[in-house]
Amino acid sequence: MSNAPVTPPSAPNDFIRDIVKADLESGKYKSPVTRFPPEPNGYLHIGHAKSICLNFGIAHEFGGRCNLRFDDTNPTKEEIEYVESIIADVKWLIAGWADDRLGYKAAGTVPETKDGDFYQPAVVAAGFTPASQPGNAPVKGAATEPFYASDYFDALYAYAIELIRRGKAYVCDHTADEVDQMRGAPDRPGENSKYRDRSIEESLKLFVAMKNGEFPDGARTVRAKIDMASPNIWLRDPLIYRIRHASHHQTGDKWCIYPLYDFAHCLSDYIEGITHSICTLEFEVHRPLYDWILNALELPRPLPHQYEFAKLIPTYTIVSKRKLIQLVNDQVVAGWDDPRLPTISGLRRRGIPASAVRQFAYNIGVTKYNSVTDIAVFEHCIREDLNKRALRRLAVLHPLKVVITNLPADHFEELDAINNPEDVSTGKRKVPFSRELYIEQDDFAEVPPPKFFRLKPGGEVRLKYAYIIKCDEVIKDSSGKIVELRCTADLDSKTGGATSGRKIKGTIHWVSAQHAIEAEVRLYDRLFTEAEPEKDGRDFKTVLNPHSLEVVTGKCEPSLKDATAELRYQFERLGYFALDADSKPGKLVFNRTIILKDAWSKIEKKQG
RNA sequence: UCCCCGGUAGUGUAAUGGUAACACAACGGCCUUUGGAGCCGUAUUUCCUGGUUCGAGUCCAGGCCGGGGAGCCA
After folding, report:
1. How many CB atoms are located within 10 Å of the residue A245 CB?
2. A19 CA to B52 C1', in Å?
3. DSSP label at residue A11
4. Which end of chain A is more exposed for a tag (fewer CB within 10 A), N or C?
5. Which nucleotide is nearest to A241 (CA to C1')?
6. Cα(A123)–Cα(A431) distance, rounded to whole angstroms?
7. What are phi and psi of A595, to 5 degrees?
8. Which residues contact A520 (CB under 8 A, 6 or more apart)?
9. If you ran DSSP here, which 8-state letter would residue A544 be given?
10. Whose C1' is closest to the CA of A366: which nucleotide?
């Protein structure tokens, strides 16, 4: 975004950054190398944003690097569409902030080998494609590309063979059901596979045969030989390779065996020279296995270490790939980038600046405590950001006609309006004013409730940047609906005028009827009516907000015809708005990013 | 039931043995040509019990409560 820059947040403190700091001070590592390792089986969401901000934040603050790596070890669940959306989302989120810390590799390269050790160098920061240029996303075949666990399949295969050679892994012929049975339970030890002690040579031979496609899916697996009696179930001879005759989105039909997460992840980290491997709490019990594999191989370079933090759970939404897919497939929303979704592409389309997402990630902190984060914190960050950068404009979303009876029919003048009181450098603009206007229906009440200081019969209100008007007459149609207000203006009350200083309680926005341009305006609200949609096992579909989207045709001041997708707008007294991708010249479409804080609605609620 | 990890105002987060603080929310007030923004104010907040210590949110022990863990998912 090219307008008013937002002050970057100062670096936060948390237990992970404390560890990084200590590791750097002790000389354990020269600089931190983190990674963001999504599986391409869905779109990224606000929870991933927290992780991205943490990993790239560390790289940014401590002079390190963060690799984008696709954890693509399960071809049956992954799709190339997700790879592409993830690249776009990551680049958007770190653009202008930490994009110089984004680790890529030279296109088409695989890890370098030396004495059985594998190392995948990263492209230096200076070589990165600027993230701010759309269409330049590095993908396979370009000069640089993200990391893919699938690029390490040869290396991982070699490491698995080494593990078998060391007598620390074996090929197991038990069926999936048998393996399940023999794993035992949390309070009951498992039993050894009868293939556990077969010879190293036999395991080696069978593993090669597995790789060569000699067995059907599920016929055999490779297992680490650890301890079937361990209280940690992940140490009970966990599977590290399985047979899957499936085509992979990156490697095609080259492989019919694929490594499992626990084996692939720690070694991918090692291969890339990751120092701090940060993941969410549910992987805590996997850490002993992560360390076991790396130690069992007696690797020559410094080892990565895994640290876990609590994932983000915001109120009034859901962040679960499986459930987001459901909302998309059931057409509850219009797609992955529906502005009501907490997906990164949804936030972007809604008009939320990346800097607001980052600020949010900083504000909520990083701990190991399973917390629920009030979405109001995010909303605050969005308003704070947009308040500084948004250009003020006048727009009426639910129009009510007002005729200024003491003005001639051909009255026309242009009034000065301030573009952004928070940023005077944005200057002023002219807004046309004439005899017939539109005001917001809500800004008039025939029978005003207490403390209502907008327009009412016989009452006065100020038109922003224009005159003080008095409502003389309410005109209704045959059904009793108010269709027009007839008012008189205090012609000396314009800015700079003799009576401009008169104390009038209310100021409302307006547009000139004759000069207004129309726009489709999509009014988005929270997707759910409950703070915790799935509390106590409730089905989230039963608490969908039926008013999460309202589409209106708004009357906008004419300058809005030049609105751009890059800029952000505040429709005065209403909220923040951004041009939608559906917008075309002559057919404006705005998304409401978020409403302004609304003190009146609270008063109204209290009054019942 | 077994293993692992947590518990600080309403919600989050800080305080790294030395006066418990910050943000959001809520509620007052000031200001305002956005009922926005801004400014000022409002809270017997450390799960319980015991121990160590001159001193404990922090260290130790036991308990209570919550979360995670038995995919050929990640």
Report:
1. 13
2. 28
3. P
4. C
5. B72
6. 52
7. -75, 160
8. A551, A552, A553, A554, A587, A588, A589, A590
9. B
10. B13
pLDDT tens sequence across A56-79: 999 999 999 999 999 999 999 999
What stretches of A264-382 adopt beta strand conformation (E)?
276-280, 305-309
Judged by C1' against the alpha carbon of A243, the nearest nucleotide is B72
Does residue A5 have a pLDDT over 50? no
**Nearest-CA residue to the C1' of B69?**
A285
**A177, closest nucleotide (Cα–C1'):** B72
Name the residue closest to B24, CA to C1': A377
Locate all alpha helices (DSSP H) within A309-425, ordered by sequence. 321-329, 344-350, 354-364, 375-389
Measure CA to C1' and name the residue nearest B14: A13
This prediction has a pTM of: 0.95
Residue A33 CB partners (closer than 8 Å, separation 6+)? A59, A64, A65, A66, A67, A103, A122, A272, A273, A274, A275, A276
Bases of chain B within 7 A of a CB of the protein:
1-8, 10-16, 23-27, 33-38, 66-74
The two tokens of residue A604 are: 């109204």
**How many other CB atoms are found less than 10 A from the CB of residue A326?**
14
Q: Which of A263, A243, A265 is nearest to A255 (CA)?
A: A243
